[in-house]
Specification:
Largest sheet: 7 strands, mixed
GO molecular function, one term: thiamine-phosphate kinase activity
Number of helices: 15
Shape: globular
Order of helices and strands: HHHHHEEHEHEEEHHEHEHHEHEEEHH
Organism: Archaeoglobus sulfaticallidus PM70-1
CATH architecture of the largest domain: Alpha-Beta Complex
Distance between the termini: 56 Å
Strand content: 15-25%
Protein name: Hydrogenase maturation factor
Oligomer: single chain
CATH superfamily of the largest domain: PurM-like C-terminal domain
Number of strands: 12
Length: about 450
């Protein structure tokens, strides 16, 4: 429970004494405290919120768009989420990066002398808070995947763990064990990190969140934008990661979980490196962001090429036990993260890739690249249909099915509000940067006068 957020909302709806009483009751219930202790806690929270909001300050304030994260689908790997990520690139602006957020790859790239440095970070799956080990295992694998698909070999991993005030300390250790299980298997060390509480004293409960980052190095890069006409698309068999595990947990199909505990993807990439094939491959990606639906549209957008998939061949690239679960639950396998390695390369190179990768995992030729724009799928009718992400990724838990995947009727109106928020953020950044630069200039001038 976010105490600070609760007070900010409630103090606008009821008098302060009522807010204090209600908040103290909630605190006592969650913490198991007596009323007097809970009241003191509530009084302190209210005082802090009142003091923080007592004055106006352009640095602390931010433009309120009126659009909520969940309403717009942020984090749900669909249209709203993709739109926000493109807007993040606008706030960042121009940079010296070889590849940045605007290129729609999961890793960013800088160049140092003759080498490319790839950097990626992934957050743990929000529904794996109570399952620290598997949360750590899959987020680590995800961060490494993002570096591998850039054609880079991982060098080091770092982590950030946040556990709410009432969370058991052992969550930290179980989570680190999950992270380092992958590190040990692929011989890449966890070298640094941060461990904090979520919201300090202001958030009570047991929720855990955080992320894992990875840094890698290479002589070549394989970004999404490099897909070319005539290329073929290969997919390794994917057994899913955090998303598939979450589905298995919350539908009580726990026997599927173990299917995801592998490093097949990482070993497939290592086999490509070992055979010196990276320089021959145009693009690599991992099927995660809203599944094939989301990734295909992004690849098409940055490469300016049409991406075409054969439905049945893609279906064969899903682990049989995972596929059986998804189809039983009526979850579209093309709209969830199946964690397959996608390789886009010339046909003659594809044969070499398949030969190298099959030592560790099955790999299938599932599509091709052609002139045009957009993503398409061909089914058993041989009809080429548009392949588009939904507003949210395929609903893969009971709650997500209640929330649904439909685009809200006011999506365009919300998008305009988001655009205004982006504009305000950019202007605020410019204002503060100019102010600091002006101070530095004055200091430099004063130093010169001496």
């Amino acid at each position: 429970m976010d105490l600070e957020g609760f007070v900010r909302r409630m103090i606008k709806r009821m008098d302060e004494d009522r807010v204090k009483k209600v908040l103290a009751e909630r605190i006592a219930e969650i913490k198991g405290w007596d009323t007097d202790k809970a009241l003191k806690w509530a009084e302190a929270v209210i005082l802090e919120v009142k003091n923080a909001d007592s004055k106006s300050n352009y640095i602390l304030e931010y433009y309120r768009s009126g659009v909520k994260m969940g309403e717009f689908g942020v984090g749900s790997r669909g249209r709203g989420d993709f739109y926000v990520h493109r807007k993040i690139a606008e706030v960042i602006g121009d940079s010296s990066a070889v590849l940045s957020t605007k290129d729609l790859d999961d890793a960013g790239v800088m160049k140092y002398k003759d080498f490319y440095i790839s950097i990626a970070i992934d957050g743990i799956h929000s529904r794996l808070s109570e399952y620290p080990f598997i949360a750590g295992f899959h987020v680590t694998r995800a961060a490494m995947r993002d570096v591998y698909v850039m054609g880079a070999r991982p060098l080091a991993v770092f982590s950030d763990i946040h556990v709410a005030d009432d969370g058991d300390v052992s969550k930290i250790f179980d989570h680190i064990a999950g992270i380092t299980a992958v590190c040990d298997l692929i011989n890449v060390p966890l070298v640094s990190g941060s461990t904090l509480r979520i919201g300090g004293d202001m958030v009570i409960g047991e929720r855990m969140t955080g992320g894992v980052g990875c840094v890698g190095i290479s002589e070549h890069i394989t970004p999404r934008k490099n897909a070319r006409k005539g290329d073929v698309i290969l997919l390794t068999e994917g057994a899913g990661g955090g998303t598939v595990v979450t589905t298995a947990i919350y539908y009580g199909m726990h026997e599927v979980i173990e299917e995801s505990l592998n490093i097949d993807f990482l070993l497939a990439c290592e086999s490509i490196f070992k055979e010196n094939l990276v320089g021959k491959i145009h693009s690599m990606s991992d099927v995660t962001n809203g599944g094939i639906r989301g990734d295909a549209e992004e690849i098409s957008a940055v490469s300016k090429k049409a991406i075409v998939f054969d439905y049945e061949k893609v279906r064969k690239a899903v682990n049989p036990k995972v596929l059986k679960m998804l189809e039983k639950l009526e979850i579209d396998f093309m709209g969830v993260s199946i964690d397959s390695l996608m390789v886009i390369c010339p046909p003659d190179v594809a044969d070499e890739v398949k030969k190298a990768v099959r030592k560790f995992v099955n790999i299938h030729e599932v599509g091709w690249v052609e002139d045009g724009e957009g993503a398409f799928v061909i089914d058993d009718t041989a009809e080429k249909r548009p392949l588009k992400p939904r507003f949210r990724e395929s609903a893969y838990t009971p709650l997500k099915k209640v929330v649904g995947e439909q685009t809200p009727p006011d999506f365009e109106e919300m998008r305009e509000k988001v655009d205004k928020a982006v504009e305000h953020a950019i202007n605020k950044k410019k204002r503060i940067v100019e102010k600091i630069r002006s101070k530095l200039l004055n200091l430099s001038s004063a130093e010169s006068d001496r």
